[in-house]
Design brief:
With 462 residues, the chain is of the alpha/beta class. It has helices at 11-22, 35-41, 52-60, 104-117, 129-138, 237-251, 256-259, 309-327, 334-361, 365-373, 386-396, 405-408, 411-422, 426-445, 455-458, and strands at 3-7, 26-31, 73-81, 89-99, 121-124, 141-144, 170-177, 190-196, 200-209, 213-222, 263-264, 270-273, 278-279, 284-285, 291-294, 300-301. α1 runs parallel beside α4 (104-117) and α10 (365-373) runs parallel beside α13. The relative contact order is 0.15. The structure holds flavin-adenine dinucleotide.
């Protein structure tokens, strides 16, 4: 039986361990913490909202997902403000199938124990490069799933693919309880996004917390040096939550009532940090010359703004396991590692990375037209309008960024897509949306609250 070693007990490492065990390989997983340490002494490494394509892989492997207890999210609601104080438009779209965000501490704890009960070997140690070399000598293939920790440096940064060399956002995350599981006037349980030009973004994510169950996870994406960039010095979850409330009160006051009574879910449920989004080369050469290959964040570290890191890791692992099986008894050499990664990158990695970078950069000209054309979406079940179909497609791109990302980079393709989806000329769609938006801009200019979305109310002729 071929032997495979995996370093890291996060989302990517554990998923790979289960998939390879199922395929009949002898698997040893190296983790710098025990299952109990994951549950009681760790920080969550991210929010890790997973969409249907990723979740399906987990279900195929029979992995526990708390799906009967966790709050499923049906879609997304977005408020776009080009500048503080200007609520330009909203988008509310439904996913074809809902998403799930499980506390990674609970998940790693359970998936590690399940891995052992399914015949996997678990070694608790913090693996050094020297030790990695020994492990690689004892195994047919060694996968490094160590996230963004030190070991990722074995893999050279792919300078051609890595668009950024510095962090694009200064990040904070905190697990909270208290806010209601929903928002007034929004007929679905959304991941709620506020984007404020020159400031940053907030994401409020329905979340299954290890102790309090159904609750929320707040992700704060501050533009470096901007007015929201105040989290990096925080030393406790209470501080992060207090700062989050301040930021929402100042820049997204429409959500302040919802958040103001939130409390910390647990003392370790928070993060602050920053990193440059990076794509790494898929072959790592150890001092002895032996080769190892990366998965998950070690291979591609994405800014969380579009909720793609863990999803990308799932897709990468599925691809890798298919390639391992297809390779039979042949050696896992540099050519195999490269071809395996390229197969994944073409189908998923490139669109996912491009999509995330598009969200970081703000809408393209085609993206702006698309946002106007969908204006009027409200995610109600009885809304079968063209605007709603555009908003739903926008949100479905979270599940598979290859669907809409290439279209939004090209105005002609965007216009064609708008026409195909709405059944009317793109100019009429964009103009109708722009009229609704302009009306509400006028209201705001007069000092009144905007009433997004408006298009349905003023019944612009199609
Ligand atoms: C604030 C935030 C929000 C996010 N939101 C989303 C989202 O909504 N959707 C989404 O898809 N993604 C999201 N992500 C990204 C997602 O959380 C990560 O992509 C994913 O958790 C990475 O999993 P991983 O297994 O690759 O790495 P990690 O989760 O970092 O796991 C690596 C593991 O390796 C272990 N390890 C490291 N070094 C060693 C060593 N030397 N020896 C032994 N063990 C070692 C670590 O302890 C850790 O357990 C978010 C990230 C952040 C920061």
């Amino acid at each position: 039986m071929r032997r495979i070693a995996i370093i890291g007990s996060g989302q990517a490492g554990l998923l790979a361990a289960h998939a390879l065990l199922k395929a009949g390989y002898e698997v040893t997983l190296y983790s710098d913490r025990t299952p109990e340490q994951w549950l009681h002494e760790s920080r969550p490494t991210g929010t890790a909202t997973r969409f249907d394509l990723s979740l399906q892989f987990e279900y195929e492997l029979g992995l526990k997902s708390w799906e009967n207890d966790a709050p499923w999210s049906d879609g997304a609601h977005m408020t776009l403000c080009p500048a503080p104080g200007n609520r330009l438009l909203t988008l509310a779209g439904r996913l074809r199938r809902p998403s799930l965000s499980i506390d990674l501490r609970l998940q790693s704890h359970a998936w590690m124990l399940d891995m052992v009960s399914r015949g996997g070997k678990l070694e608790i140690e913090s693996v050094t490069v020297e030790r990695l070399d020994q492990i690689a000598a004892e195994n047919d293939l060694t996968l490094v799933a160590a996230g963004r920790a030190e070991l990722c440096r074995i893999f050279e940064r792919d300078a051609e693919r890595s668009v950024f060399d510095k962090p694009q956002r200064h990040l904070a995350m905190v697990c909270v309880k208290g806010p209601p599981m929903g928002f007034d006037g929004i007929p679905l349980l959304p991941v709620k996004n506020n984007t404020v030009g020159g400031v940053g973004e907030t994401l409020f994510v329905p979340y299954f917390h290890k102790d309090v169950g159904a609750s929320w996870n707040l992700v704060l994406e501050a533009l470096p040096g901007g007015p929201m960039d105040r989290f990096q010095g925080a030393r406790s979850g209470e501080q992060v939550l207090e700062l989050a409330k301040q930021v929402v009160r100042e820049f997204m006051p429409w959500d302040y009532d919802w958040l103001k009574n939130a409390e910390l879910s647990d003392p370790l449920g928070w993060l602050v940090g920053k990193f440059a989004p990076t794509v790494r080369k898929p072959v790592g050469r150890l001092p002895s010359g032996r080769l190892v290959t990366p998965i998950g964040d070690t291979a591609m570290a994405l800014d969380p703004i579009a909720g793609q890191g863990a999803n990308n890791g799932n897709k990468m692992v599925r691809n890798l396991v298919e390639c391992v099986i297809a390779h039979g008894d042949r050696p896992f050499d540099a050519q195999w590692m490269t071809e395996t990664f390229e197969r994944f990158y073409a189908r998923h990695g490139h669109p996912t990375y491009t999509y995330t970078n598009m969200v970081l950069a703000g809408p393209t000209p085609a993206g702006r037209e698309y946002l106007f054309a969908q204006y009027g979406s409200d995610a109600r079940f009885d809304n079968t309008s063209g605007q709603q179909r555009l908003a739903d497609a926008f949100v479905e791109n979270l599940n598979d960024p290859a669907l809409l990302t290439p279209i939004l980079q090209d105005r002609r393709k965007t216009h064609e897509f708008i026409e195909k989806t709405t059944g009317r000329s793109w100019i009429r769609s964009v103009a109708a949306g722009a009229m609704g938006v302009a009306w509400e801009e006028f209201r705001q200019w007069r000092g009144l609250e905007p009433r997004h979305p408006l298009v349905a109310e003023i019944k612009i002729a199609a």
